[in-house]
């Protein structure tokens, strides 16, 4: 994109210093190297809080050495946004005895909520304060007064008339402060109770919306001699006349930037209507000024647009042409990845100008700022220190996540990672749950531990019984049929618990409310009660038979008690009489959704019930459980028939049972698949805002997941949803429920695809060309790109077969939203957008959905994956061990919906913690890990490692099989029951 340039460090390039001092931060995890003995040169640096510090460095050291010392002094992890500025525009003196360098913000990102550390936001707030005082940040009086009021609130606290007036008299925040002093005090009155961290958040929120935010003007002239100013920003190169922006050139449209003497050249990409490249020329004061601005543009482009630091250009053997300058340091994408992986510790800092002791206060928006991975923790915003809390959604949720996941920006102002144990603490703040018995776990130093180390799931809360378990396991029958039958028992127990959610928990919850229609109550409970009672009897029979099977000491002797086919045959024949009730389950799902649409009270009741701990999955998923259970019986019987020889006593009953259940599955399969698609659309509807009629007839869900979209702001993380008629792209909104706001859609009819990695220089990228719009996206890896391309091409073929050329595609699917000229959806202002949001968004909904997990782990899931997950459900006891612990702890574990749910026993009504597995890897421990036990598998994600131990070779293989189905994305063979449906 940019011309080669000389590789040097850059201390003051942002504001026009002609000589670079080499500003870049440390490599991840490294500290400044020890200073070699000998003479040291003192360097004075003025920090953003106006204090000065002296750092000693060896003579002839690059600027990077000094900059790293400053970042280490500040305990600043996200130091890549900052730089050192030398205010004198002459050469750096050889003996800089009296030289003062300024530590300043170098890169201004568009969204301050992406910062992980409160310290970073505080330093940005100080930079805004400085820009206001010196007149760099031009804005109207209302914005200026509001920003100053937040600055004062962070410095002196709540409004006091005498104190506030005295403070304004002795402190200068604006050049013309006296003219709007009354307006400042009036705004200050409204901030009662606001902490300094919250004030910083609001200050940056106002500042980032201003046109002059982060703008540093460089004087220039156009070809006609008109005086202009150029500036570099995250979006591209901007042109100003005075303080008014008159033009902008996005990075995506710029082909090349160069300079020749004092002429600055911008070469744009060819437009479809033009056969030639446009070249724009600006004249600057001198060659040095021109080169300085060119270097700033190179750095801005690399920082905001590239995935990783560009490689240096190899030195020419004979002749050099042009500059060898390259951006050095981490890009914004690398910062995000590093902060997600490193789990930086919260470091206290001092607010030099603030009279309030609040160096660790949490922003009320922190749940949206740092919600990288902990998407399902139930947490009160004030209850956990900001940077130790791995999650944070102000929405209460019954099931805490286990290990800290990753963090691309996770979500409370400061915290963002979904995997630590959680809890409904005693702190103030949002959340209406009642799970006070789930306690936030902390180490002696006060640091938060993993959820699996909570008091209810630690070794202290459960007896270590390694020898007992080993002895009992050796007494179990070795016949594989026993363990297949035991899988039937364990999964039946979980199935009964799921039915209780409908027949008991939901019944008691809505039965007391007159707003819930009696007709819906009658339909649901008349359809599920008979099924529930039938399976209760079936479970008792299976439990008795398994107790006999495993209870004899001479287990090797064959007998009638060592079979399960007779019980299955008897009960499957009885289940056939319940087919009429099973067929009504789809009607229950449709009628419940219809009632929720027509009544806000019904919708609120359903939403509130989903917040109960017992409802650990979206409620609609429970309604489909009886249909899915038929598939489980079929797969269990297939394994039994495959295991038994034809001469076995149990073979004939198992084969007859398999024939009966296969007939039932075939009879209900069409209804089942339609309901799965309908249920998935209903679940996505809760996660999306700005698209009201997602469940239109004929629409099928195909894939959802994260892709990076190339836009004017560079590569932006977006959530994409592929349906049979359109591709919708969204970003996560700053709402209490963290829903995804629709940015646009591409109708699939007439859509074409071209792989564009070479054109844009972005790995794993491809371009989608619609009728009125084109979109460039990039996947996280080659395999992810192939999955998207395969599904999009399939969807395009389906769309072209089912849609006539005369169909109005652009207006389909998003009523109420306006279409921009390029054919994408253009959302209106926040006020207008709010009118179309559902009450779910305004009042909150569960935040542990698969969509959020995909967002934080930068992956995707297809409808094929969901269908496979329906069949690959498993329950049973496992022994769990942490990476650095000694003992094994027995837990009841349920695998469903791509997650492991942990209980103390199968009798518990709700899980104590959960672990989403998307992104995890499942392997066998190596010898170096010293796990000297049989049947152990390891789950690991980045630095999080868990060991689980099963009781037999069969159960070990089954757990490995089902977990791999969740950790490996689709593009695999489907089970035989579903092949013909795709």
UniProtKB/TrEMBL annotation:
GO cellular component terms, alphabetically, are: cytosol; dendritic spine; filopodium; plasma membrane
Report membrane topology: Peripheral membrane protein
Any idea where the PH domain is? Answer: 700-797, 871-968
Q: Where in the cell is it found?
A: Cell membrane; Cell projection, Dendrite; Cell projection, Dendritic spine; Cell projection, Filopodium
Q: Where is this region: Disordered?
A: 1-41, 402-471, 807-845
Q: Where is the composition biased (Polar residues)?
A: 440-456
* CDD domains per record: FERM_B-lobe, FERM_C_FARP1-like, PH1_FARP1-like, PH2_FARP1-like
- Locate the compositionally biased regions of type Low complexity: 407-416
Composition bias of kind Acidic residues appears in 823-833
Does Acetylation count among this protein's keywords? no
PANTHER family found in the cross-reference section: FERM DOMAIN CONTAINING PROTEIN, FERM, ARHGEF AND PLECKSTRIN DOMAIN-CONTAINING PROTEIN 1
Q: Can you say what this protein is called?
A: FERM, ARHGEF and pleckstrin domain-containing protein 1
Organism the protein comes from: Takifugu rubripes
What high-level taxonomic lineage is stated for the organism? Eukaryota, Metazoa, Chordata, Craniata, Vertebrata
């Amino acid at each position: 994109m940019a011309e080669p340039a000389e590789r040097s460090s850059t201390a003051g390039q942002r504001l026009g210093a002609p000589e670079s001092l080499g500003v870049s931060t440390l490599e991840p995890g490294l500290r400044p190297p020890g200073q070699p003995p000998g003479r040291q040169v003192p360097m004075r640096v003025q920090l953003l809080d106006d204090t000065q510090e002296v750092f000693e460095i060896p003579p002839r050291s690059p600027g990077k050495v000094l900059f790293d010392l400053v970042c280490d002094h500040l305990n600043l992890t996200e130091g890549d946004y900052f730089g050192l500025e030398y205010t004198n525009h002459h050469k750096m003196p050889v003996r800089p005895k009296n030289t003062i360098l300024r530590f300043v913000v170098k890169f201004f990102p568009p969204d301050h909520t992406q910062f992980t550390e409160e310290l970073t936001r505080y330093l940005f707030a100080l930079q805004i304060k400085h820009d206001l005082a010196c007149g760099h940040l031009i804005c109207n009086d209302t914005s200026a007064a509001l920003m100053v009021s937040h600055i004062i609130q962070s410095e002196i606290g709540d409004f006091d008339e005498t104190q506030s007036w005295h403070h304004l008299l002795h402190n200068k925040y604006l050049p013309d402060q006296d003219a709007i002093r009354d307006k400042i005090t009036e705004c200050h009155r409204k901030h009662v109770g606001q902490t300094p961290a919250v004030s910083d958040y609001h200050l940056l929120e106002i500042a980032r919306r201003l046109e002059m935010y982060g703008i540093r003007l460089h004087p220039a002239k156009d070809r006609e001699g008109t005086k202009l100013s150029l500036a570099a920003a995250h979006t591209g190169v901007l042109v100003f006349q005075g303080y008014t922006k008159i033009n902008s050139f996005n990075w995506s449209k710029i082909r090349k930037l160069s300079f020749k003497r004092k002429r600055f050249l911008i070469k744009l990409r060819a437009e479809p209507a033009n056969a030639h490249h446009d070249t724009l020329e600006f004249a600057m004061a001198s060659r040095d000024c021109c080169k300085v601005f060119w270097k700033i543009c190179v750095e801005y482009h690399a920082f905001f647009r590239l995935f990783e630091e560009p490689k240096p250009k190899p030195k020419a053997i004979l002749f050099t042409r042009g500059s060898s300058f390259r951006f050095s340091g981490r890009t914004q994408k690398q910062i995000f990845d590093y902060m997600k992986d490193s789990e930086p510790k919260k470091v206290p800092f001092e607010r030099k100008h603030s009279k309030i002791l609040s160096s660790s206060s949490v922003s009320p928006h922190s749940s949206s700022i740092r919600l990288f991975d902990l998407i399902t923790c139930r947490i009160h915003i004030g209850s956990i220190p900001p940077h130790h809390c791995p999650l944070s959604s102000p929405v209460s949720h019954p099931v805490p996540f286990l290990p800290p996941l990753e963090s691309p920006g996770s979500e409370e102002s400061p915290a963002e990672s979904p995997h630590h144990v959680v809890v409904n603490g005693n702190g103030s703040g949002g959340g209406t749950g009642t799970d006070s018995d789930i306690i936030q776990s902390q180490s002696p130093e006060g640091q938060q531990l993993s959820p699996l180390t909570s008091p209810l799931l630690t070794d202290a809360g459960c007896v270590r019984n390694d020898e007992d378990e080993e002895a009992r396991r050796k007494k179990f029958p070795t016949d594989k049929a026993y363990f297949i039958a035991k899988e039937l028992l364990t999964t039946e127990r979980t199935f009964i618990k799921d039915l209780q959610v409908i027949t008991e928990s939901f019944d008691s919850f809505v039965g007391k409310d007159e707003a819930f229609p009696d007709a819906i109550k009658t339909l649901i409970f008349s359809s599920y009660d008979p099924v529930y009672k039938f399976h209760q009897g079936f479970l008792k029979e299976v439990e008795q038979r398994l107790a006999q099977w495993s209870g004899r000491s001479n287990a090797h002797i064959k007998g009638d008690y060592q079979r399960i086919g007779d019980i299955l045959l008897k009960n499957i024949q009885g289940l056939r009489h319940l087919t009429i009730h099973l067929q009504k389950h789809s009607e229950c799902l449709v009628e419940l959704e219809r009632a929720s649409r027509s009544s806000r009270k019904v919708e609120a009741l359903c939403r509130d019930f989903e917040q109960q701990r017992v409802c650990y999955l979206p409620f609609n998923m429970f309604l489909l459980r009886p249909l899915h259970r038929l598939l489980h019986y079929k797969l269990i019987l297939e394994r039994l028939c495959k295991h038994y020889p034809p001469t076995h006593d149990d073979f004939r009953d198992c084969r007859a049972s398999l024939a009966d259940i296969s007939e039932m599955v075939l009879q209900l399969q069409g209804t089942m698949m339609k309901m799965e698609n309908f249920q998935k659309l209903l679940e996505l509807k809760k996660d999306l805002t700005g698209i009201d009629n997602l469940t239109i007839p004929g629409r099928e869900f195909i894939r959802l997941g994260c892709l990076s979209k190339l836009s004017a702001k560079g590569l932006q993380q977006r959530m994409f949803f592929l349906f049979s008629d359109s591709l919708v792209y969204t970003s996560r909104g700053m709402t209490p429920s963290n829903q995804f706001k629709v940015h646009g859609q591409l109708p699939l009819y007439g859509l074409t695809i071209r792989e564009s990695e070479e054109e844009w220089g972005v790995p794993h990228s491809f371009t989608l060309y619609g009728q009125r719009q084109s979109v460039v996206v990039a996947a996280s890896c080659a395999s992810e790109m192939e999955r998207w391309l395969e599904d999009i091409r399939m969807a395009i073929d389906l769309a072209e077969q089912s849609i006539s050329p005369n169909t109005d595609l652009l207006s389909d699917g998003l009523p109420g939203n306006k279409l921009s000229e390029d054919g994408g959806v253009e959302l209106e202002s926040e006020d207008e957008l709010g009118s179309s949001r559902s009450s779910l968004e305004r009042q909150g909904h569960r935040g542990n959905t698969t969509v959020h997990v995909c967002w934080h782990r930068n992956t995707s899931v297809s409808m094929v994956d969901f269908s496979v997950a329906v069949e690959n459900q498993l329950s049973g006891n496992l022994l769990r061990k942490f990476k650095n612990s000694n003992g094994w702890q027995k837990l009841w574990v349920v695998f469903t919906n791509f997650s492991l749910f942990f209980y103390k026993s199968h009798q518990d009504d709700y899980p104590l913690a959960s672990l989403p597995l998307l992104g995890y890897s499942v392997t066998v421990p190596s010898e170096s890990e010293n796990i000297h036990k049989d049947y152990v598998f390891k789950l690991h994600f980045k630095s999080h490692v868990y060991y689980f131990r099963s009781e037999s070779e069969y159960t070990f293989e089954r757990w490995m099989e089902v977990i791999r189905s969740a950790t490996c994305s689709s593009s695999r063979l489907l089970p035989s029951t579903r092949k013909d449906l795709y």
